[in-house]
Amino acid sequence: MKAVKFLFLLVAFLLVEFASGQEIKCKYCQKPIVGDYIIVDGFKYHRNHFLCANCNKPIEGKYFTKNDKYYHDKCFELLFLPKCAVCNKSINGEYLIDSFGNKIHKHHEAEIDRCDNCNRIISENTTNGGIKYIDGRKICNICYGNRINSIYEYKSALSKVITRLKDYGLHFSESSISLKIVSLSELQRVSESRYSKSVRGFTHTLIKTLGNKKSFEHTIYVLNMIPSKYAESTIAHELMHIWISENIAKKLTPKLEEGSCNYISYIYLKSDYSQDAKDIIKQLKESPDKIYGDGYRKVFERFNGREFSQFLNYLKTNASI
Ligand SMILES: [Zn+2]
Ligand SMILES: [Zn+2]
Ligand SMILES: [Zn+2]
Ligand SMILES: [Zn+2]
Ligand SMILES: [Zn+2]
After folding, report:
1. Beta carbons of 293 and 302 less than 8 angstroms apart
2. pLDDT at residue 99 above 70?
3. Is the Cβ–Cβ distance between 96 and 103 less than 8 Å?
4. Superfamily grouping for domain 5-80
5. Which terminus, N or C, of the chain has the lesser number of Cβ atoms within 10 Å?
6. Spacing, Cα 260 to ligand 3 middle (Å)
7. In 3-state terms, what secondary structure has residue 283?
8. Ligand 3 center–CA 75 separation, angstroms
9. Ligand nearest to the CA of 62
10. Ligand nearest the Cα atom of residue 199
11. What residue segments make up the domains of the chain, in order of their start?
12. Is 50 exceeded by the pLDDT of residue 16?
């Protein structure tokens, strides 16, 4: 609002005869003015020629000015004040904003939901509404529209991620991994307290020792009915847990392990320019979680832009970050 001046119209009256004998011209039509006129910023206008830059209709009473243009107060509101994503009205005061730039009046806070998947404010304007899953998740219609749910779709996501991670020297044998698609309640049950909203998955590993030969059986649990990019990102995270359990003998601190797994989600998504990929990277970056968020930021700061092998070597020689 700083650039905005708030003024009232000055209406000057003039006798029909010109007081000074000098002709007064309207700034808008350049024709002589006879009778009442308006003075704004030193310029004179016919009363019906002082026009709003938005609707082009004459302004009477109060007006706003911005960048040397004049507006009705209503037109100004419409053009320059942020719109509330819930009630559609202009916001002239306190508001809340989600990480996608959606703004809402502060007083809607208690009545709105955020998507449990992408964190957008759920409303008709922002997400075309949303739905509630049986397991309690509130999901916006953008995420709902992009959801995958068949084991076939999840399995092809797994193969896709495994193929991509090969380029980074991370190798997985698909036959040792079984994939389970679960509801939020099932995921919380299998992962016990280790469930994190920003991860959406969990991996259970069974190590069998036969003589001095170790073999691994992994089960990856992934949340059902999430968009494919979120499923891929989750699978990338879980695959890194598998890589760590197969390649690192010592125990890593949760911060280093979860941070590294989130870093692999980032590595997997970084050259993907879809909106979902950008949103997930943003979530990784901005997560307030002390383990997942802080861990990711630590790993990212230390290894992003460096040889990937330096990251893997660090995991082999260090237990914490
Ligand atoms: Zn005029
Ligand atoms: Zn107007
Ligand atoms: Zn509102
Ligand atoms: Zn969503
Ligand atoms: Zn994890």
Report:
1. no
2. yes
3. yes
4. Cysteine Rich Protein (2.10.110.10)
5. N
6. 41
7. helix
8. 18
9. 2
10. 5
11. 5-80, 97-145, 147-317
12. no
Percentages (nearest 5) of helix, strand, coil residues in the chain: 40, 25, 40
Question: From ligand 2's centre to the CA of 91, what distance in Å?
Answer: 18
Q: Which residue do the tokens 């700061």 mark?
A: 301
Could you tell me the pLDDT band of residue 150, with boundaries at 50, 70 and 90?
very high
Given the structure tokens 């930021």, which residue do they identify? 297
CA–CA dist 229, 277 (Å, integer): 6
- Hunting for tokens 């970084």 — which residue is that? 270
What is the number of the ligand closest to the CA of 54? 2
Contacts of 79 (CB under 8 A, 6+ apart): 54, 71
Cα of 78 from ligand 2 centre, angstroms:
10
What's the confidence (pLDDT) of residue 14?
44
> What pLDDT shows up at residue 81?
85
Q: Which helix (H) or strand (E) holds 160?
A: helix 151-166
For the segment 19-47, the average pLDDT, to the nearest whole number, is 83
Say if CB 308 and CB 168 are below 8 A apart: yes
The pTM for the full model equals: 0.77
Tokens 């044998």: give the residue: 173
Q: Give the number of the ligand closest to the Cα of residue 88.
A: 3
